[in-house]
Amino acid sequence: MEEIMKVGVLTSGGDAPGMNAAIRAVVRAGLHRNMEVYGIRRGYQGMIDGDIIKLDSVSVSGIIHQGGTILQTARCKEFTTYEGRKKAYENLCAFGINAVIVIGGDGSFTGAGIMSKEFNIPFIGIPGTIDNDLYGTDYTIGFDTALNTVVNAVDKIRDTASSHGRIFFVEVMGKEAGFVALQSGIACGAEGILIPEEKGQIEKLMNYLTIRAKQKKSSIIMVAEGEDEGGAISIANKIKERFPEYDIRTTILGHIQRGGTPSALDRICASRMGVAAIEALIDDQKSIMIGMVNNEVVHVPLNKTVKLDKDVDRDLLGIADMLV
Ligand code: F6P
């Protein structure tokens, strides 16, 4: 008799809107394929602690529209050690779990790749992070919602900036990457965008402040948290010294970018990826990430997505510069 596939699903790293839609898709697609699906709570920490529950179709009812993750999440140090992973493996064995689907970012996939090799257990990754910084996929779950959150917030800041004739430096998340800053910057009509992937943006900003800023009612300068000058506060301070005539303010948007109702795009993306992860297990895939390229589902080896860096779209940088 063929062994029933028992799949564990977990969310790991920073939460992202749409993770619940992905969990729902994994559970329902798994049941559709006669699998048993287990929820592992608090990411790898729950795997180590044996915090595991069987999920059925009803357990994932009414969650597609909720931000955060019903399974909760964690950044787990213990999982970076062999001892931690061994404990985790023993718990998987105790529940009979013979495949794992991890919804998370590059840190989560690094752990998945290592454990998959060490204990010969299939791990399928679903990219879930607002940063959109994973190689091999155009989209990560949560990015679109985070972008819209930033755009809504900055539109409001723009009202104050215009009313007072101010320059606002707005810092957005993205870890070491500038995807959120670049795309939200374009959507908000930002006058400057500072991201780690592109050098020389500060000189462009200086040129802008020397002449053009004086002719404008307001300016928004979008700063990625990982850019080289030390973040929005530090840049704003330098600019204040150099241009004391400007009325300058700084806003750090912070964790509002991580929460909230997932957008339709994130829900659809998460649903497609969740189903694709189950299909990948049926196809006997062992250690891959599900990606989305040109709106098609693709498989990317986990070791490739964690090793390679995804670059920002250089055309978008050109567009941002041209439209200031
Ligand atoms: O990876 C998502 C992210 O929100 C990054 O953009 C940010 O640098 C980091 O997580 C913040 O992590 P934490 O919520 O653990 O402070």
Entry summary:
The protein folds into 2 domains: 6-142 and 262-307, Rossmann fold (3-Layer(aba) Sandwich), CATH 3.40.50.450; 145-258, Phosphofructokinase domain (Rossmann fold, 3-Layer(aba) Sandwich). Helix content is 44%, strand content 18%.
Can you offer a commentary on this structure?
- With 324 residues, the protein is of the alpha/beta class.
- The protein has 2 domains: 6-142 and 262-307, Rossmann fold; 145-258, 3-Layer(aba) Sandwich (Rossmann fold), CATH 3.40.50.460.
- The protein has 12 helices and 11 strands.
- The strands form 2 sheets. The protein has a 7-stranded mixed sheet with strand order 3-2-1-4-5-10-11, sandwiched between helices. A 4-stranded parallel sheet has the order 7-8-6-9, sandwiched between helices.
- The longest helix is centred in the middle third of the chain and has 22 residues, at 143-164.
- The protein is elongated, with a radius of gyration of 22 Å.
- The structure holds 6-O-phosphono-beta-D-fructofuranose.
- The site of 6-O-phosphono-beta-D-fructofuranose has 10 residues, from loops.
